[in-house]
Amino acid sequence: MRTLAGIDVLLTRKKDLLVGRRLGLVTNPTGATSDLRSDIDALRSLPRSELVALFGPEHGIHSDVQDGIAVASGLDRRTGLPVHSLYGPQKKPTGAMLSNVDVLIYDMQDVGARFYTYLWTLYHVLFAVAERGLEIIVLDRPNPLGGELVEGPMLDPAFASFVGEYPIPIRYGLTVGELATLFNQTARANLTVIPMEGWRRSAWYDRTGLAWVLPSPNMPTLDTAIVYPGTCLFEGTNLSEGRGTTKPFEFVGAPWVEAEDLAEAMNRRRLPGVAFRPVYFTPTYSKFSGQMCGGVQLHVLDRALFHPVEAGLYLLSTLSHMYLDRFSWLPTSWEGKPPHFDLLMGTDSVRRQLEAGVPVPEIVESWQIGLEGFQEKRAGLFLY
């Protein structure tokens, strides 16, 4: 059964919610109908409401800006609408940005991992709307990794940042609409979630019938999203996570890594659902730009068995032991806060355990109690 995203349901059955209203839209290219018409065009064409402002996340409303780069506000050259950046000095909409908005609509595709910043744009938007007594409509979309499995430690509020601001695990198994409901238990906004039709919790994105629109410049395929919860952790190290290649997050390596040795060491671990192939790659930007790196590509052979966070930790542990004199954690994050790896993990305990030589299965076991509590909590949020 083909999935209808929240925008399709809104336009076919819920248009009355918009009648007579001035609309603001938080979006990027993933905000599109099932026939790939942009939300911007679809909402501008409605006869009894008016789209008055656009709000852009990291990478901008056109997803043309690379990661970590502040996005400027301005005017959309096609529509002439004001575009308010929510990735730069201001990550939360201000009163001035919302001054002529009655209803704020949020529609962007997430990738199922806590450190993807679009979740935290939603989080801040909920609080901004609540503070001003406005309404917000969140248009639901599939979790690309399905809605059944969860993995990783719960975020410790002491490590809150724009890659994690609320206590959820790395892989949370919720849709963006379900997350909005969870966040709104704190924000208390006037929230309406428009659910999808035809989505099941067991469905990965390629079972929805929806086209994959790049959520961000370094998320080209579903294969990328599947490994991302584990390999994004290498952002916090001096190894390349594959940015600047055609396989971001599927490649991991550095100029001083012997690809065949690393692949052999990882394959000896016989991790479920994944094989490691030796690769050589030369990033065109980001870490080691213009330098040939040795490393591995993660090939997911059975995604139902594959545990990306656990696999990422095994890869970190193996590399840190093989290259004890070369491997290092980056000392600070792009926010100028403690080690970026700790912000990605949502805790410093995992880094400390790895440094102490704690076996990965023991590290994984240490977060299970937290996951059990989260499993109980999230069951009350299910829309599907």
Provide structural commentary.
It is built from eleven helices and ten strands. The protein has helices spanning 6-13, 39-44, 118-132, 176-187, 222-231, 259-268, 308-322, 340-345, 349-355, 360-366, 368-379, and strands at 22-27, 50-56, 74-75, 82-85, 103-107, 135-139, 190-194, 251-254, 274-281, 293-300. The strands form two sheets. A seven-stranded mixed sheet has the order 3-4-2-1-5-6-7. Strand 6, helix 4 (176-187) and strand 7 form a beta-alpha-beta unit. The model has no long low-confidence stretch (mean pLDDT 96).
What overall form do the CA principal axes indicate? globular
Per DSSP E runs of 2 or more residues, the count of β-strands stands at: 10
Q: What is the domain total for the residues?
A: 2
CATH H-level superfamily title of the largest domain: Uncharacterised protein PF07075, DUF1343
Distance between the termini: 14 Å
Alpha-beta content class: alpha/beta
CATH A-level architecture of the largest domain? 3-Layer(aba) Sandwich
Provide the residue-averaged pLDDT. Answer: 96
Q: Report the order of strands and helices.
A: HEHEEEEHEHEHEHEEHHHHH
Largest sheet: 7 strands, mixed
Low-confidence stretches: none
In which range does the helix fraction lie? 25-40%
User: How many distinct helices?
Assistant: 11
| CATH fold name of the largest domain | Rossmann fold
Bin the strand percentage.
5-15%
Radius of gyration equals 21 Å
What is the highest CATH level, the class of the largest domain? Answer: Alpha Beta
Strands of the widest sheet, in order across it, are 3-4-2-1-5-6-7
